[in-house]
Amino acid sequence: MSGPVMELAGRLNPLPTKYNAPGLWSIGCETLDRDYADFDKYRPWLCEIGARSARIQSGWAKCEPEAGKYDFGWLDHIVDGLIEEGLTPWMSLGYGNPVYGAEKSLGSRIFSDDRTMNAWRKYVNALVTRYRGKVNEWEIWNEPNLGRGNNSAADYANLVIATVAEIKKVSPDAVIIAGSLSRMPLDFTSDFLDILKKKNVLGDIDYISFHPYFENPDDAVDGILELAELVRSYNPDIKLFMGECGCPCVLEWGHALRYHEWSEYSQAKWVARRMLNDWSLGIRSSIFTFVDLQYPNMMQSFGMLRTNLLKEVVYRRPAFYTFRNIVNVFTPGLVPDRTLEYDCNSARELSLTGVRIGEDIAGAVMWFSDKLPSDALDFQEVDLTLKGVALAEPVLVDLITGRVYNVKRYRGDVMAGRQKFTGLQLWDSPMLLIDMKFLPEGSVSVPVNSDGSVRDMKY
To answer: How far apart are CA 150 and CA 264, in angstroms?
Structure first.
């Protein structure tokens, strides 16, 4: 089949960015320091995306093209532009600066010589001074455990200690994000946390960020839980932050998730599963990336917006709408309940998390999680029983298209604290079963297109 065979009740009505409450969600606006994208060319779409925060990179090499001479104009333009569009930037500090003999790309060697480290400290101080009041969350480096084996945990720990000292001189209340780990390396993490503990710096760390690039996003869950347990053993006040992760939409020969024939629909499913896995764990989540990026060796297709070789936006991909729908529905008032019990007659593995609003279970979000997100638009009919749930007006929301389907005729009876739904249509992308009253206002109408149809995507 192509799409759920269910009665259409309406569509989600996403709010513009400025009207959403800050929450778990962030978008990636990385690599502007190396001009792999053009901020002005994609800025007009920021007002639609819904997320209230964005990750950017500080670009030491671009800010200090000559030793001791700073040029922050390009970064001012991005920071101020994001704020004007309703987003709060958080900044990743890095990479090195060739002026001091330090590399400026992914996998760069972390410097340790006195000359470069002193210049770095002065740069960080100047940067935090300039953006105090506009940027309050600072991430230190990017994927220090990645690359050619150049960096040790000690190298990274020394950089974190020096950087934290400079940030706190200027902004004592600043939020510090350490790690920025490629995947969830436990040995590297424990080694650098051991050093921070010995140097009494652990108390200054607010988050450990990580980048769980897995072809099946559900395969990352066990590793995330292990990382959370490890970090908690050092300091229970330090939280996890999924600081960067995304999916291409074509077969790529470089970068993460390469050598798989992704499509725009499998990308959208991947993004939805990554976001809802993070939400189910109560973790902040930043999706890489808002637009395609023009790397020196290739055009990278991770963008929610497709761009051309002139870095102009061509169109919104399904992942754009997926991200926006999730941001608008999974607001701070909706919290996960991983204890919700259920029965399902499907032979496929089902990932299901309860959705709680206050003391009430408002529904559940679920998807088939046993395989990689596919290109197929096929749905499977299942019977589902939720325990301890009584939805008065249940609907099923497809988080890619934003379509809302009636499930009244499938509801069954509420017996002994169990509510059974027969004939639900599920697939390998998150579907939200929820009481209609908890959806954003305005989500019940069915707009009709000029040709008389109600279709808005491929299915």
So the answer is: 35
